[in-house]
Batch of 4 targets.
Target 1
Amino acid sequence: MLFSKRRIILIGVVAAVVATIVFLPLILTITLPTNVNNIAVRLEKVEVVKNATAVNPRIVQLNLIFGVHNPTDKSLTTSKIEYQLFANGQPLGDGLLSYEDVPVNGRPQLLSNTDAQLQSQFTITPSNSTAEIVKQIANQSTGKKITWKVVGEADIDSGFSSATKSFTNQI
């Protein structure tokens, strides 16, 4: 007999495993909302931490407040936001707000049709090229308005899948 019960079961199990491997990427992308590109990440506010400059006047520490708007009908989360910060067009460096080592249920929730605020600390150590702008940032009382710009990518997660959202914002 060519097909015994054992062979039929074995062929069925192998076919099920192959089907799972082939269709798994499709199943995982279904869990992301179709309008994930409508999610907006923006820089809302930049604050100078006064205590940090009192300890070491050469280092300026900033708190960056990011706003994330989720217009989709699904609750999402973020695992990280990587960004570059500019002040008056001058690059200050790269920053990272990461929740990758936090379990999914502990990450910031981006609930459906709501806004969420995420805070990131950014430390600036002046160099020859950034000394003047860092002085302006540290002494905000000079009255000169600083134009902040951020360029980056946020990893947006939903269940088993993830998508990268690029953003650029200026305040």
Target 2
Amino acid sequence: MSGYSYPEWQGEGLFYPPGLAKSKYLTYYASRYRTVEGVGMFKRMPAESTALKVIKECSPDFHLSPKMNERVTHFQRIKPECIPIVEAFLEPLALLEERGMMGPVLIQLPPNFSAKLELLDEFLSAIPHRPTLRWAIEFRHSSWQTAETESLLRKHSIAWVADDTDEHDAILRDTTDHHYIRLRKTDYSDKQLREWAKKLKDIDSHVYVRHTDVQAPWIWADRLVELTL
């Protein structure tokens, strides 16, 4: 799911059992799922203590997918001067990367950020590229929905985020060897989850359901896990 540290998820019949200490949330979460989206890093730069906590409390095959800080995507808007921030963002997570416990880094562009292919090309050329580091980018302005954008992501081996919303269905694009999927609709029927499960069985993917404005997103997550075993 997108994040895990939500006190409102705790209680009788909810995700976290009553009486579970908040410090044990991650341990419990990791007993049910193999990955989490680090949405809190969008507002707060990551700390090494986060990496150490994941290593200590999660299995070696668990993945934390960090969401790039807003200073890069929303304030600097991927201009060249943001690259030192990208590097500072990744540094505290190095232990996770070394152990293969870091999922793709999510770069989510603002809704009012229209297509600037030359700028994107420059940014994707400047960010670190190595076998242990994967990237995914989410476009929220319609002007990015072009073959030129797809070609550019394929050139840099960046996953195009498949965002599934009430306004539009997700599109799976093969821009690299893995997929990043965000299920953001306010409701999913069992038929829709079965359709997603069929797609997920044949691809290397990280999938995250929404965490806000829905009653119990873990029901969808649990069902997807069940259907893809």
Target 3
Amino acid sequence: MPATQAEAGSMTAHLPPRHDLAPRDGASIAVFKDRKVLLVKRGRAPFAGLWSLPGGKIEGDETPRQAACRELKEETGIEAEVEGIIDTVKVAPEGPGDTSAYRLTVFYGRPIGGSLTAGSDAEAAEWVHLDDIDALPMTEGAAELIWTAMHRLRTP
């Protein structure tokens, strides 16, 4: 049988893996206290083992802001007051087998309650001093988002 034909009963036997055509919507948040930012170390794919801002998928009829606050609470135990939006960024699939791209609305704010504890898909959650950001293995673009947010917090 020629390589371009699928086997009987399988129309996709020789097609490459499908990537989602439209990115999924998600949200994350940079939360600052003193000269520290709240980060999570990802415990699962994508990005397992890398430090990043808390965040994840938007569920149901949530707004991006609601999703960011929910994910923050689930991953870190912390509640925050959202002060603004840093940016909307596209996160590409991490590698083979990961077919989902995301469009993240990234917020920034300050803590208003809760108790720090790693939860959900976070391996760890920590307040990281801004001087230590560049030394951590981080998800692509996270450090730049942190610096942009820090600048906006300082500029009325």
Target 4
Amino acid sequence: MPTNNRAVSWRLISWMKIRGRRFPALKRGNTKSCHRLNRGFSLIELMVVLTIVGILVRIGISTYSSAITSSNISSESNALWGDLQYAHSQSIKQGLTVTLCAANTSGNAPYTCSGSSTTWSSGWVTYTGSYTTTSGAVTQALLLRVQQPLLSSYTMKSTSTNALSSISFNSFGFSTIRGSVTVSPPSTSSVSSKTVCISAVGSLQIVLGGDSACP
């Protein structure tokens, strides 16, 4: 029996030595590996990660804001261009003079053309014939289309040499004067303006930039 016990003891000691070599972290006093696995992130590493995330978020927000502004600029300039195209085609179809004029359309009809004002941000109306009545407003019988005001932070203004408060097309589809109307973003935006150009022969075009970009 003593011989057998001694043999078992040596086998147990040999097994523990083998286990100790394979798994040094299990040895008594060898806690360095455990601490290395459980230490986590340092404060500096966390600050670096947060800084990178902040930069990426700022770039994403700026890009998204510019895309929205550019979309609004395109939408407003396309609205004016579309109504001018409509007025041009109706003047030829009906054999009458068709006019767009800047007007405050935030309220209810009848609407009054703004006269000498070259700002189109408050809206505009499309009508046939002459708008002059006893009240100075466009009558419902002459009114073809009404465009609502722009978003408050955007501006639409004619800055061409011939500043336009109204645009008319005669029965042949010719415009009475050459000019342009520019849609501009908020002053804090870096997005470019867009301009609707009107030639004397009635051709219409949207260009990037101000009146100087018109052909």
